[in-house]
Amino acid sequence: MRRVGFVLFWLLGAALAQGIKVGVLAPLSGPAAADGKSVLSGIQIAAEEINASGGLLGRKIELVVYDDQADPRLAVNFVRRLIELDRVAFIIGGSYSGASLAASPVANEAQVPFIAAYAVHPDITQGKPYAFRMGLLGPVQGRVGAFLAHRLGAKRVAVLSIQNDFGRSLEQGFRDQAAKLGLEVVFSEVYPPGNQNFTPLLARLKASDAQALYASGYYAEAANLVRQARSLGLDIPIIGQEGYDSPKFIELAGQAAEGVYITTTLDRDSRSPEVQGFLRKYQERTGLPADMVGASGYAALKVVAQVAQRAGDLGGPALRRGLLGLINLETAVGKIFFFTSQGDPVKSATVQVVKNGQFRRFLNVTDLALLKP
Amino acid sequence: MDLFTLTALLGDGLAVGSIYALTALGLTLVYGLLRVLHVAHAGVYAVGAYAGWWAFQKTGSFGLALGTGAVAGALLGLFLEAWFYRPLLSRPPHVALIGSIGLFLAVGDLLRILFGPYQQSLPALAPAPVVGMLTAPQLVVVGATAVLLLGVYFVVEQTRLGLGWRAMAQDALTAAALGVDLPLMSRLAFLAASLLAGLAGVLVGAYYNQVYPTMGAVLAYKGLAIVVLGGLGNLWGTVAAALLLGLLESLAVAYLGHRFPPEGVAFVALILVLLFRPQGLFSRARR
Amino acid sequence: MYVVTILELLLIYALLTLSLNLVVGLAGQVNLGHAAFFGIGAYAGGTLLKAGAPFPVALAAGAAAATALGLVLGAVSLRLRGDYLAIATIGFNFAVVAALLYTPYFGGAYGLSGIPRGLAPSTYLLALLATFGLAVFIHERVRNSESGYAFVALRDSEVAAEALGLNVNRFKLVAFALSTALAGVAGVFYAAYIGTLRPEDFGFPLSVTLMAMLVVGGMGGLWGPILGAFLLGGFAQAFAFVHNYQAVLYGLLLALVMRYRPQGILGRVS
Q: How many Å apart are CA A180 and CA A197, to the nearest integer?
């Protein structure tokens, strides 16, 4: 009898020690590999933090990571694998919109919560009760950009958008708010992702007499854009977005990065101990300053873990209810006021400016009229 | 269009065209001699860029960076010629083409594994206006290309090596019968082409201040279009096509933006040229 | 279910390699732009499925659209040979992708999303298997028939084939038509499978992948293309644990196979 008891006790212990599997999809190779690396680092830091302080519901988090190369075909198969073979409790989508769009319906159908860390396409969460996102929607960010241009005193603005869903949704929000604020768009062009040569467009922009430039892109395009603008003698304020939010932007743009504004959600000057702790740990772990993508991955895991801890339950429906019931939660990427019924966060944004080679806070935005999707 | 805009666009067009010329030249040289589309040439270019970046990091000297890039490119090119292309000469052309594409993909990913997916900066050329609205990077690239093209002209038109190349390109069998050492010609052609590619890689890395694993991709595709427009195997036609393309792109983008798909238009034009003037824009008709 | 999903994707790849084989392996014409027809079929069928059309209608539309453009490329192939044709097909691929990218009706850069499966999961699998069987049947009929011999004659020596009285042009066009129709059908199945399409998914890199599958497996026969599809298509799944090294391994595999066994794994030395 004692032997049976002992075995049962051992089995129980083994079961309790069994980890909670959390799925992660991220582009670790291919064109988006840089962001994949960042988001994974953020998620790993969050997992380590949670495990170090007792784990989630007493159990350790085990990350199951698949490289989807930002490719929808791979994403759709890996997400099935995560759900059926690995039996994960929930999935953090650390990839771009294309892959996340393919993955979220699958997760939603299986009632496994899927949280897109930073992808911007509205359809990822639209009509899918189990799909959520941590990032600001494109149009919301665009509105903040127009608000900033107005604040900087510009009346005639130029718009240069990257030709994908990211750029389009930003431009849409910017134009809407610009119209409300009486700003005139005097120059408007698009460019394909991966474009390196902006000189022809910038030369014509300079002739258009714009007072500020709202330009979207990822850090590689942004660095070239900014460098070439300054080399042509274009001195007007340049407003970027979270695509610029990376130490690589500053490194690649060099001196030209000084004074560039970005609308984003990672406030380097935040007084929150959680944010400062994350910034420090990220730097120690990777040797690089943190970026918005890494912070979004970190925040995604922390938020779901907190919700699960409070609910005492890892089931899909419980997590979903918990997320929808969240109010005023401070995270590494801003204060989430609440999630909309679509699973999109209404949260604060920040404007950072590059000063002496670092992102510093310029101002924070908490106006709900601007921030509601 | 005011003078400022005009000089800005000319400078830009010539600089971009020069880069195209340096890489496409090697591609067309190899094709002219071996009738093989050396897609992996873009991989040689990327390797040269990384070698130059590494040298610049260690020494801070742009000159040394250029030299290192050229040498690294040349070594890789020679290796590929000996191990991959020459043994496959007797096979149908698609074999070398597919394998070449595979090599290009493998080299690109190897660079990512070794150096990380992030862009590396090569801050050797400060992006400031120098003469009028022309910038230092533009002047360096155009100047370097001019010097290199002069060198190529000299070798091709004035030396026995150049004579051997031209003979082999025109009719390999007859050239061999007349005593031209075909394998040697082939090796030297790869050497020259890969030297140029490696150099071009370092120049571009410094021009945009970005060195990254997939930097060869754009050139791989554009290079194909340029060598066809210039005439497959026609060295000076290719150079002309390259410079022309650079200038046209600059003007077109400035005034038409990217509303028209640049690759789409370019490749439709390409297909039309192939159908109606397959010798390219600058050659005399072959048959 | 997970295994079934993988199998379905591999079957779609196999449909593509078999269709490509008709043009490249049998008729000997280079086609480095095959992904374009896959894409045209996918977009045509996907648009109809989204509009609520029944699956067979979407299939027909996808096949028709792809064939129409396939005949255009076929016509081009009548005037170009070898490397020139190769470059023209690459250009065609880029042009099609650009057209899809810049056409707002097809979603442009956003792509086409929210495509319904159009069939119950088990029906979908059966339909795909049936189509695959049909493709094999057509492939073998063509290969082992007079047309097939004509194709091979064409591949081995166009001049000789012409001299023997074969209407070279007609066979080239037939090859392109059949090949692209099949690719278009595969496209519709794919659209239903993945639910979201982007123009860049059907670009030159995919054409290279398809060509690679064909060449690695071995051209000309039946099992070569199928093996190539299952081998290279299943690569990412089988090697999930070396996920970080997929691209370099894949590229090296291509290069090594071409260097040391260009006839592919199952092909015969020509």
A: 33
Q: What is the residue type of A203?
A: A
pLDDT at B262 over 90: no
Q: Give the gyration radius of chain A's Cα atoms.
A: 21
Q: What are phi and psi of C108, to 5 degrees?
A: 55, -130
DSSP string covering C174-200, please?
HHHHHHHHHHHHHHHHHHHHHS-B-GG
Number of domains forming the structure of chain B: 1
Side-chain half-sphere of A266: how many Cα atoms within 13 Å?
28
B16, B129, B259: residue with CB nearest A233 = B129
Q: How far apart are the C-alpha atoms of C203 and B55, rounded to whole Å?
A: 36
Question: What token pair was written down for C162?
Answer: 């012409």
Contacts of B260 in chain C (CB under 8 A): 102
Domain span holding position B97: 3-276
B142 assigned to some structural domain: yes
Does a structural domain hold residue B285?
no
- Could you report the per-residue pLDDT of C114-161, keeping only the tens digit for each? 788 888 889 999 999 999 999 999 888 887 775 566 666 666 666 666
Whether A266 contacts A292, CB under 8 Å: yes
Rounded CA separation C151/C175 (Å): 8
Q: B4 to chain A: which residues are within 8 Å by CB?
A: 203, 206-207
Q: Which value, to the nearest 10 degrees, does the dihedral of the CA atoms of residues A144, A145, A150, A156 take?
A: -150
Residue B54 located in a structural domain: yes
Q: How many CB atoms lie within 10 A of CB A248?
A: 24
Q: What is the DSSP pairing of strand A114-116 with strand A131-133?
A: parallel
Q: What is the pTM of this model?
A: 0.84
As to burial, measured by CB atoms within 10 angstroms (0-12 exposed, 13-18 middle, 19+ buried), residue C205 is middle
Amino acid at position A121, single letter: H
Quick check: B275 and C80 CB within 8 A?
A: yes
- Cα separation, C106 vs C44, in Å, equals 9
Name the amino acid, one letter, at C181.
A
Contact B140, B125 (CB under 8 A): yes
- Which CATH number covers residue B222? 1.10.3470
Return phi, psi of residue C168, to 5°.
-55, -45
Which of C39, C62, C43, C53 has the alpha carbon at shortest distance from C119? C53
- A residues 54-83 closer than 8 Å to C (CB): 66-67, 69, 71-74, 76-78, 80-81
3-class secondary-structure state, position C266: coil
- Burial of C111 from C-beta contacts in 10 A (0-12 / 13-18 / 19+): buried
| B5 inside 8 A of chain A by CB | yes
Amino acid of residue A184: E
Instruction: Tell me if B35 is assigned to some domain.
Output: yes
Closest CB to A200 among B210, B254, B259: B254
Distance of alpha carbon A91 from alpha carbon A4, whole angstroms: 38
Specify whether the CB–CB gap between B102 and C258 falls below 8 A.
yes
Handedness of CA B202, B207, B210, B214 (dihedral sign): negative
Beta-carbon separation of C1 and A80 below 8 A: yes
Torsion sign across C-alpha atoms C35, C38, C44, C47: negative
Three-class DSSP category at A41? helix
Answer whether residue A262 shows pLDDT above 50: yes
Hey, what are A114's tokens? 């899927």
CA A147 to chain centre: 21
Q: Contact at 8 Å (CB) between A46 and A73?
A: no
Question: Per-residue pLDDT for A31 more than 60?
Answer: yes
What sections of A165-244 are H helices per DSSP?
165-181, 199-207, 219-231
Kind of pairing, strands A156-162 and A184-191? parallel
pLDDT-above-90 percentage for chain C: 34
Under DSSP, is residue A71 helix (H, G, I), strand (E, B) or coil?
Answer: coil
Q: Which of A68, A101, A128, A191 to mutate to test the interface with C (most CBs of C within 10 A)?
A: A101
